[in-house]
Q: What sequence folds into this?
């Protein structure tokens, strides 16, 4: 089944096909949702009702980790962090879950062949970047992609085998130096950009992970003069569809008096140019 080139945003009852714990406290859920699977693009997210009753009231947002348009399925990779994700993790295969999506604006994959794409993932930020690698490989070929995946320890580095199976170059960084580069993934990024000195204009960087990590990715790109750096923000959300302003982020706006304006991460993002974000 070919991809539908327009968004089929809606509310769908999606059957949970299966879910399993892939690393301690990290779950991979596969859901049936043909409209979402056939129209979602890399970097978009869905808003999941994790309970059949009204408590918790708010849906929980998760980036799409992979789409399988032929099967009509898609997957989510999530960390169990609080009440909502604990409830999600208890849903059994065969149960129906209400899902709103696909939502938001995804990554811009560029329009120049021979560009080098560097993907910087921190922890569960690997979820949208896994889908991004699928899309980049399909559009540009996997040989143009380098993934830098970071985690607190070896066990916290997510999707390593999946990235490898794409055939992309991958380097791993661990905070506790238990595996790969010893230190933050942003230290590894500095080294990798340094190796490409003089070629910065040919690089595109994509990142998702903890806020502080993305802020540092943005700083490194700015200082190294890598102009094209996109970050996928994960601000707390309420409605997820652009009406409550609960997720706003200060974004540079030279045309305004104060030089910035609030943008809604759920509707205007979650992907933004790192240069435009006012990092606080
Ligand atoms: C666009 C978007 C995409 C996301 N994609 C993913 C994904 O692919 N995988 C994944 O594991 N998580 C993802 N998240 C984060 C996920 O939505 C939250 O972890 C989840 O809503 C927490 O729900 P909870 O009820 O379990 O935790 P809560 O009980 O609501 O919160 C528990 C703790 O987590 C903190 N928290 C809640 N939401 C966030 C957040 N958005 N960012 C940082 N801390 C938060 C709270 O402040 C609190 O300390 C995404 C968030 C956004 C906005
Ligand atoms: S969550 Fe309501 S506007 Fe973004």
A:
């Amino acid at each position: 089944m070919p991809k539908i080139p327009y968004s089929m945003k809606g509310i769908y009852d999606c059957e949970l096909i299966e879910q399993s714990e892939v690393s301690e406290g990290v779950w991979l859920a596969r859901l049936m949702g043909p409209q979402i699977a056939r129209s979602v693009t890399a970097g978009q997210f869905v808003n999941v009702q994790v309970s059949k009753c009204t408590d918790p009231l708010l849906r929980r947002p998760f980036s799409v980790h992979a789409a399988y348009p032929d099967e009509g399925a898609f997957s989510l990779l999530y960390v169990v962090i609080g009440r909502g994700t604990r409830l999600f993790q208890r849903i059994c295969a065969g149960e129906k879950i209400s899902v709103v999506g696909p939502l938001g604006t995804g990554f811009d994959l560029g329009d120049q062949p021979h560009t080098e794409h560097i993907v910087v993932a921190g922890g569960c930020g690997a979820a949208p970047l896994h889908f991004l690698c699928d899309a980049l490989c399909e559009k540009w070929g996997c040989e143009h992609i380098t993934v830098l995946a970071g985690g607190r320890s070896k066990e916290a580095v997510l999707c390593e085998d999946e990235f490898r199976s794409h055939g992309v170059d991958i380097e791993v960084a661990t905070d506790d130096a238990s595996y790969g580069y010893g230190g933050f993934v942003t230290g590894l990024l500095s080294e990798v950009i340094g190796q490409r000195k003089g070629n910065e204009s040919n690089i595109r960087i994509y990142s998702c992970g903890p806020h502080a990590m993305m802020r540092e990715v943005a700083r490194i790109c700015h200082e190294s003069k890598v102009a094209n750096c996109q970050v996928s923000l994960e601000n707390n959300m309420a409605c997820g569809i652009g009406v409550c302003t609960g997720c706003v982020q200060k974004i540079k706006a030279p045309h305004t008096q104060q030089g910035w304006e609030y943008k809604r991460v759920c509707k205007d993002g979650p992907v933004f140019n790192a240069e435009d974000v006012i990092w606080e």
In short: Helices lie at 34-39, 83-89, 126-140, 160-166, 185-194, 211-224. The chain has two domains: 10-103, 116-232. The domain at 10-103 is CATH 2.40.30.10 (Elongation Factor Tu (Ef-tu); domain 3).
